[in-house]
Amino acid sequence: MDLILWVLLAVVSLLFWLYQINKDYYVLAFFAPRVKTKDGRPEWTIAPVPKGRTIFANGFDLYGLTEQQVFQRLRIRAETFPSSFIEYGFGIAIYNITDAESADLVLNDQNLITKSIIYDFLHPALCTGLLTSTDKKWHSRRRLVTPTFHFNILGQFEEIFKAESFKFVEQFNGASEISISVSELIPRFTLNCICETAMGVKLDDMAEKGDLYRENFTMIDKSFVRRLSNPFFWNKTLYEYFRPKADASSLKVVHDFSNEIIAKRRILLEADLQHRKTTQDADEDIYVNNKPRFAMLDTLIFAETDGLIDHKGICEEVDTLMFEGFDGTSIGLTFGLMNMSLYGDKQELCYQEINEYIADDLSNLDINQIGKLKYLDCFIKETMRMFPSVPVTGRQAVRETELANGLILPAGTQISLHIFDIHRSPKYWDSPDKFQPERFLPENCRDRHTYAYIPFSAGQRNCIGQKYAMLEMKTLLIVVLKQYKILPLIDTKDLVFSTGITLRTDNNIKVKLVKRQ
Ligand code: HEM
């Protein structure tokens, strides 16, 4: 009898203790530290806490879902909670942002520059380069790489974008009518561009390896979602133990490719420097001149000589720039061409504007002329509003952080910024599912929150390649539109999205090109 009483007492005490501790830790979410508020109110009065799928709060909400279901689930949540919400996962709080006001608070907070845990899932592929690093390392790398995106350098890259765009249309051999798979051809184009501009290496004799690199990055993407949806796999050791063997071989292909690019460039650079010496053409300023250009990778190799980065660091940045450079732009262009095909009247407006500023032989197609194409700019912005290449980005609070909206995020809180949902929120956009480039005309932007449109993120950790990406996308669209009318072969109703590191569709997006007279 005594024993039963003791057990009962122990159970009651345990429950009481759990009840007390539940104020500071979400017990059912494996003791996740709770988000607090400045005035002591419960956190859900500021940001609601949705009920989870299991008794373990939200820890298993994505468990067992396919990539498409994960995508759908995130959208439904954002629709239900249009002004941000908090979830409690496996020992962590997750602050989900679906409104521009909260995005503004987080992206401009100097304490919130560390990327969230999901970026750790990219470490096997990208290690800790610009995208994934933090603190001092990130600051020094950002300082190192920023000059390579200088306006004058972009002007020189324009020559490469132009040449690659010509090659893109030349592959159709002047056909008067042809159906093309944009999903297949565009990633090849963007990978060629990033390798030649940033790495100083033409892919002409490495085309197959380039294709293999892209294929294997798709595998890495799948492993990213596998980890995202299974809380056990958030643990690196567990994941490495259970991960499929194919993961390791995909990583090897990706790293072998970037290593080969670096080795090639080292040889080319050496020869180039020798040539400059013998022709007395060495110049002091590698950034601002009109002489034969240096690639971004050269800046890293020079920095290595100055002891500012080592070979491993160069590999990290090459992997990062290559991935960011080809994938983000590729998605933007794929949807750009798709939208040109779907909205013939808007395509015609772009075409007329291009004819006004760009000669038929494209001889004056340069960075200055491209800057004059305001409607094309609106067209691409509207494409990236509806189909942002990076649908979600994340930060984490490394220490307790108080936000101006009254929330106090405990150390370790993960922050997910749902760019896709902010871009489709009726709070900022009338008929958000309608394609209307005119939204971006200056007179129509005036009253809109700046952070309602953040395809390149914002604040200190914004996309370093945004001007580069816009220039590349515009160049290809101009070259294609000058020669071809683009007709649709897909209906937006048939688009099926998936979650990945970037925005994925399961569709093979095709368009029909008809030669202009
Ligand atoms: C349409 C094309 C692109 C889109 C939509 C895009 C979008 C983004 C976004 C949203 C981020 C922030 C990620 C985050 O906060 O988690 C980012 C970061 C970054 N992007 Fe891009 N990007 C594009 C093209 C490029 C290109 C062409 C390059 C390089 C040539 C590039 C290089 C980077 C790098 C290095 C970072 C990390 C910056 C840092 O943390 O300091 N991106 N990009």
From TrEMBL:
Names of required cofactors: heme
Keyword Hydrolase in annotation: no
GO molecular function ontology, one term from the record: iron ion binding
Keyword Transmembrane helix assigned: no
UniProt keyword annotations, A-Z: Heme, Iron, Metal-binding, Monooxygenase, Oxidoreductase
Pfam families, sorted: p450 (PF00067)
Residues binding heme, per UniProt: 463
Reported function: May be involved in the metabolism of insect hormones and in the breakdown of synthetic insecticides.
Similarity remark: Belongs to the cytochrome P450 family.
Protein name, UniProt field: Cytochrome P450 4p1-like
Species this chain originates from: Drosophila albomicans (Fruit fly)
Lineage: Eukaryota, Metazoa, Ecdysozoa, Arthropoda, Hexapoda
